[in-house]
Design brief:
InterPro entries: RegFact_GeneExpr_CellDeath
Order of helices and strands: EEEH
Strand content: 15-25%
Number of helices: 1
Distance between the termini: 22 Å
Helix content: under 10%
Bound molecules: zinc ion
Number of strands: 3
Length: about 90
């Protein structure tokens, strides 16, 4: 039996901002990362015992790739700011 694990990753900027609070706290200065519409970017992986297959849509829509909206610690954002970003494409067979 070939058991596989399928995982799908979506763009974290996709979707509509929903406040979790009761309006008592101001929204952070940078605002929400959500773009109030869908971004088609996704990566789907199917992991088997021997290999991992991947399919993806690498197109982002409705936003730029801005470091300030990446869900990573501020110190890491400051470290990578200004460094050229190399994008490694995932091969799909
Ligand atoms: Zn996106």
């Amino acid at each position: 039996m070939n058991k596989t694990i399928t995982t799908k990753y979506y763009c974290h900027r996709s979707g509509v901002f929903k406040s979790k609070g009761k309006g008592e706290c101001a929204l952070k200065i940078t605002g929400s990362c959500k773009i109030d519409q869908c971004c088609p970017f996704f990566i789907r992986t199917v992991a088997g015992l021997i290999n991992i297959d991947g399919t993806y849509c690498k197109t982002h829509f409705g936003h730029q790739n801005e470091i300030r909206y990446l869900p990573i610690p501020t110190i890491v954002q400051e470290t990578i700011a200004g460094i050229p970003i190399f994008i490694f494409e995932i091969c799909s067979y």
